[in-house]
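Lab channel / #folding
Pinned by the channel admin:
"Please post every new chain as: sequence first, then the C-alpha cells as a reply. Keep commentary short and put observations after the output so the thread stays searchable."

First post following the new format, from NK:
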Amino acid sequence: MQVRIEDFGPVSSFEFDSDKIFQLIVGDNNIGKSYVLSAYYFVVKSLLDIKSLPFRYYHFAEFMESQKGDATDKVDAEVDKYLKSRSGAKDIDITNFYKECVRFAIAQSFLSVFSEYIDGSYKEVGSVVNKMSGASQAKITVSLPGLRFTVSGDVGAFLVSDVDLDFKVVYRESKQNRDPVFQNNTFVIYKPAGFKEHANRIRLVAVRNTLGNLVAGLNGFKDINYLPASRSGLYQALSAFGQIIAELSKSRSFLSSRIELPAIPRQLSDYFIKLTSISDVSVPTVSELGAIADKIESTVLKGKIEYDFEEKRLYYRPEGTDLRLDLSATSSMVSEIGPIVVYIRHILGVLEPGRQRTGRRIKGKEETAKTILVIEEPEAHLHPDNQLKMTELYADLAKYGVHVVMTSHSNYVFNKVSNLIVGGRLLPGQVKCDLFEVTKQGSVGKVQEIDEYGIDDNNFADASESLMAEKLELLGAK
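Reply from TO:
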C-alpha cells in the first residue's frame, strides 16, 4: 500500500510505502514531518476501522435507496436494450458505472472515518491546505492492489475526488446464477436468468468488492501505533489532566465561566489511551519482542520499567536499588524511553488473538500480528551511544512483523541505519529514506538513493563539513 500526500499542511508532496519495513524521514525542523505522519496514521486507522464497523452501516436496502436516480435508469436502459436486441457484443462495458459505485462505497466507509479524524484533530486550526502552493484542496491518494483512490478537500469538506481501477468491468448475460469472476484483467458480473434489478446487482457487487479491497489492501496489518515527540511530557500531562477534571467537577458550583477543553489530535489521544488501557498482566506475549524490551532496560535504561495494572501508571526501578520511581521523578532519558518499553512489551508484543496454543506457544515470529510503529524523534534526550543502541533495536523489531516509520534529526540515527544496511541487518529493498526539503510550493520528500553501501547523505554532511571548515578557519587564525 502506498499513500501519497499532497498540499497537506506545509507539505507539497510526500509518499509512504507500507511495504517497506523501515522508513526513515530526515530534514530540517518545522517543515511538515508531523503533518505527513498524522495523515498517514489517519489513512491506516481509517482502513483498520472499516473492519470493525457494523454491517448495517452498509445495509443493502439503504444503499439502493440512496442510489436511485438517472445513473440507475441509464444502466438499466442499456442492459434492457442489449437483452432485447441480442445483437452485437455479448458484454456491456459498465466500468464507469462500477467506478461510481466504488466511489460511493469509499465515501460511506473510509472517507466518513478519515474525515472524522481530520476534523477532530485540525478543527481548531481551521484548515489543512498548503498555503504556499496556492492549492485549494489537500489531497491524499491511496494505492492498493487493483484500486487507487483520492480524497480531496479541507477540514469539514473532504470528498472522494477520483477512483481508478486497473481492470475493466463488464456485465454478461448468463443462463444460470454465477459469481463474478476475473478473466484476463476483466471483471465479469453475470446477469442471472430472469433477473431484472441489473443496476442493483452491480452496485451490490461493487460495494462488497470495494470493502473487501480496502481491508485486503492493509496487507495483513492489524494495528498502527504512534509514539509522538515529547512522549513523556504528553503522558504525564494527560495523566494529570484527568485528575484536574475530576477536581474541577467537585468544585463546579464555584466556577463562574464555561471551561472549553482543547482538542487533542487523534494520534496523541490514541497513544495515551493505549498506555492507560493495558489491563491484563497474564496476556500471552511474544518472547522475542519481550527480549527487545529487556535489552533496552539492561543496555540503555539500567533499570526496569514497570506497568502498574491497577493504577495504569509507569514506574522505573533503577538497578541495584529498591526504589520505585514515577516517570516524573526520573531523568529525561528514562521518561522518554519508558513509554517505548511498555509499547513494545505490552502492546506490540501481545500475541494475535486466536494464535496461541494450549500448553505451548508457536515461535513469536509466526504469532506476531503485523503492525506499523510510527516514532517521532527517537533520539530525544539520548546520548549518541544510546541513540545507536536504540536504532539497532528498532531495526530488530522488523523481524517480528513491526514496520517502523520514524522521523529523526540525528546524524547518529541516520548513519546507524545506513550501517545496518551495509552490514546486512536491513536489506536495501526493505528500507526507504526521505529527505524533506523546502521549495516555494511547500516542502517535498525526496527519496534518497539506497544500495548495499548504505544511504546517500544529502542532509547531515553539509553541517559536518561546515563545522570542520569553521574549526580549520579558527585554528588558522591563531
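NK: The chain has two domains: 1-219+410-478, 226-248+266-370.
TO: also worth noting, Residues 226-248+266-370 form one domain.
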